[in-house]
Design goal:
The complex is a heterodimer of chains A (about 120) and B (about 250). Chain A is extended and about 50 Å long. In chain A, about 45% of the residues lie in helices and about 10% in strands. The chains are: A mainly alpha (about 120), B alpha+beta (about 250). Chains A and B meet through strand 1, strand 2, helix 1, helix 3 and helix 4 of A and helix 1, strand 5, strand 6, helix 2 and helix 3 of B.
């Protein structure tokens, strides 16, 4: 039985595993990242599979940036200023991000923003 | 987010989490859902990080994100992180970074470094407790021995009121949402109380991966921001993840 007023607290669910039904949105694919590879090559296989989804995700962040700053200046800042900080970020993560930008075609500034979003989001 | 580590009567540790993200970042009126979680779900992947042909650690990631939010070093420790809000927040850390004061760590690079390089629960706990951060965070850490689980509440510079399992005192699980464990959660966003109610109703005798998944499937612990659920069993080296959906009526957060 579901309480029809926020916070919609349900009775404790049971028998939900193995996952199925309306709360199950799908299984998660496994990939291997080979840490013996150069950092810029490690994510290539995974990103090649997921690049369209990544492009859509990054576009959603850009739409958000444009909603916040309609002039487009924020988006320009992301694409021009963020790449300048790539070599201040710790190795090997900076190299891995460069490899992700290359493999996906997503501008480096947007890959960096996606990866530091936790700190940025606290704003 | 809701993260928990529970110990079953045999001393096995189960670490599980709902990853909730994307609050106030755009609402899709047509689908009655948040924009960002909908875009993140197709990016959810499980990754086996290998070196010299053997597993170093496993994680659930968003493709394109090189840091770690959910991971396990098989037979050693498990780690999840939840967002912590504080006025002394990430924007200050970023400002310091831009001004050249770079003695802090970006949160997700720290968790990645710990999962890749730490060799024990104790070492992971020390690194997560003592490393200066750019932004505050909760780290939820599970080990591979009875009693090894803790909630590490971090400001940018300090570890505040660490909370550990205490089986003798009846604390057989630790659970963290997005509020300091010594404070009452915001009443508009209290996912802690329903989650603890269901854990207590389950009891330690019946805790398992299956019943933990039930808890994480109960609204509002499951909500419109929930992108995935991950279940980890360190002693079996097993990590499994599932994309989540929260059918209406469902809390937006």
């Amino acid at each position: 039985s579901l309480q029809y007023v926020p916070p919609y607290t349900e009775d404790c669910r049971t028998g939900m595993y193995p996952p199925s039904g309306p709360t199950f949105g799908g299984a998660v694919t496994w990939y291997t990242v080979n840490l013996d590879l150069p950092p810029s090559k490690r994510w290539t296989e995974l990103i090649t599979d997921k690049k369209n989804d990544l492009i859509i995700m990054v576009q959603a962040i850009k739409d958000l940036a444009d909603a916040l700053v309609p002039s487009g200046r924020l988006e320009e800042l992301i694409d021009q200023a963020l790449p300048l900080m790539i070599d201040t970020l710790p190795y090997p993560f900076n190299e891995e991000m460069k490899g992700i930008a290359t493999a996906s075609g997503v501008p480096l500034g947007e890959v960096i923003l996606f990866n530091i979003f936790y700190e940025v989001f606290t704003v | 987010c809701t993260s928990l580590v529970a110990e079953d009567p045999e001393g096995n540790l189960i670490h599980a989490r709902n990853l909730d993200f994307g609050l106030f970042l755009g609402w899709d009126k047509k689908n009655h859902s948040w924009v960002i979680p909908d875009k993140l779900k197709p990016l959810v992947v499980n990754v086996d990080f290998r070196r010299n042909n053997s597993t170093v650690f496993k994680s659930t990631n968003f493709a394109g994100y090189v840091g770690m939010l959910t991971g396990m070093q098989p037979n050693s420790f498990t780690l999840t992180m939840n967002e912590r809000f504080s006025l002394d927040g990430g924007y200050i850390g970023i400002l310091e970074w831009i001004l050249g004061k770079r003695d802090g760590m970006w949160m997700s690079f720290l968790t990645r470094s710990v999962l890749e390089n730490a060799t024990s629960y104790a070492q992971a706990q020390k690194l997560l407790s003592d490393t200066k951060l750019l932004a505050p965070a909760y780290f939820i850490l599970g080990g591979n021995q009875t009693g090894e689980a803790s909630i590490i509440t971090r400001s940018r510079t300090h570890n505040l009121n660490p909370l550990e399992l205490d089986i003798k005192q009846g604390r057989w699980y630790v659970l963290e949402t997005n509020y300091d464990h010594w404070k009452t959660p915001l009443f508009l966003d209290d996912r802690r109380t329903p989650a603890m109610k269901c854990m207590n109703q389950t009891t330690q005798a019946n805790i398992s991966v299956q019943t933990v998944y039930d808890v994480l499937s109960t609204k509002p612990v499951l909500n419109k921001l929930t992108t995935y659920t991950t279940l980890m069993q360190v002693s079996k080296g097993k990590l499994e993840s599932f994309i989540r959906v929260c059918p209406n009526p469902c809390m937006p957060w």
